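hey so i finally got around to running the thing on that chain from the lab meeting. sorry it took forever, my laptop kept dying and i had to restart like 3 times. anyway pasting the input first so we r on the same page abt which one it is
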Amino acid sequence: MDPLTPSDGEALRMYACGPTVYDYGHIGNFRTFLQVDVLRRFLKLTGIKVRHVMNITDVDDKIIRNAAAAGVSIGAYSAEFEKAFFEDLIRWGSSGRRLSRAPPSTFRAWWSWSSGWPLREGLPD
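ok and heres what got predicted. didnt touch it at all, straight out
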C-alpha cells in the first residue's frame, strides 16, 4: 500500500458535504460530521497537515417552502439553523473552527479544521 501524502506536498485536502440547514440537526446528521472530524484528527495525529472544508447549503426546496410558510426570508430562515448547527457541532465535541463565508444563496459557510487558517465571522470557534 502506498503512503498517504498530500498531492501538493503541504496539506492533505479533504472536502465533506455539510448540512442543508432547513431544520435543527439530529444525531443521525452529526454522526457523519463527527466521523469526518475523527478522521481529520487521526490524520493530524499521524503528522499529516490537513485542510478540511465543509459547505453549508442555505437554499433548497425545503428551505424555500419552510421560509414561505413561516413568512420570513430564505436568508433569515436558514441563518437560525446554520447558527444552531455550528453551536451543536461544538457541543458534540468537534474541534473545528469557522473559516469564512461564501456568498449568500450559494454555500453559506465553510468550516475549517486547519489550525493555521484565520478565524472570521464570530460563530463558535
